[in-house]
């Protein structure tokens, strides 16, 4: 079983930590992790391919994570999106879930919480 993940974050450091976290969690499965450093690139990739999971930062310079979720919803592009952010306000979580995200975790994510969420969403 190979799991494909798209990691959307404008910070290369964050993308590196996210990829390492998933490689640690998914070491017993095949995992392919693609990256997008901005929202426009991410939307283009989501048009081309269905990922098993998309991770999304909320705060990016060109378009916010909210904008990405809205665009995916508006264009009827089905992706399982987990928002990974430092913005852990309850209103932010409520808003992303309303926009179609399947999960919301603080960066850096706790591996146990991520595994629980992956199981809950059917990725694992």
Description:
- This protein is α/β, with parallel strands linked by helices.
- The protein has a single domain (2-120), classed as Response regulator (Rossmann fold, 3-Layer(aba) Sandwich), CATH 3.40.50.
- It has helices at residues 12-25, 39-48, 65-74, 90-98, 111-120; strands spanning 2-8, 30-36, 53-56, 81-85, 103-106.
- The protein has a 5-stranded parallel sheet, sandwiched between helices.
- Helix 2 packs parallel to helix 3 (65-74).
- The longest helix has 14 residues, at 12-25.
- The relative contact order is 0.19.
- The model has no long low-confidence stretch (mean pLDDT 94).
Summarize the model shown.
By secondary structure, the chain is of the alpha/beta class.
The rough form would be described as globular
The helix tally amounts to: 5
* Beta strand count: 5
- SSE pattern: EHEHEHEHEH
CATH-defined fold name: Rossmann fold
Structural category is: alpha/beta
CATH architecture: 3-Layer(aba) Sandwich
Classify the helix fraction into a percent range: 40-55%
Average pLDDT metric: 94
Instruction: State the domain count.
Output: 1
Just give the CATH class: Alpha Beta
Low-confidence stretches: none
Sequence of strands across the biggest β-sheet: 2-1-3-4-5
Largest sheet: 5 strands, parallel
Cα Rg? 13 Å
| Distance, first to last CA | 10 Å
Work out the strand percent: 15-25%
CATH homolog superfamily: Response regulator
């Amino acid at each position: 079983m190979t799991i494909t993940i798209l990691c959307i974050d404008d910070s290369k450091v964050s993308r590196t930590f996210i990829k390492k976290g998933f490689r640690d969690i998914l070491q017993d499965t095949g995992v392919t992790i693609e990256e997008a450093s901005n929202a426009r690139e991410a939307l283009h990739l989501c048009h081309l391919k269905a990922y098993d999971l998309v991770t999304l930062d909320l705060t990016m310079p060109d378009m916010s994570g909210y904008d990405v979720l809205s665009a995916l919803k508006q264009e009827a592009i089905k992706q399982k999106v987990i928002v990974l952010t430092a913005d852990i306000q309850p209103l932010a979580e409520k808003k992303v879930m309303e926009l179609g995200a399947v999960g919301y975790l603080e960066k850096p994510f706790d591996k146990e919480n991520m595994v629980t969420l992956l199981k809950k969403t059917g990725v694992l």
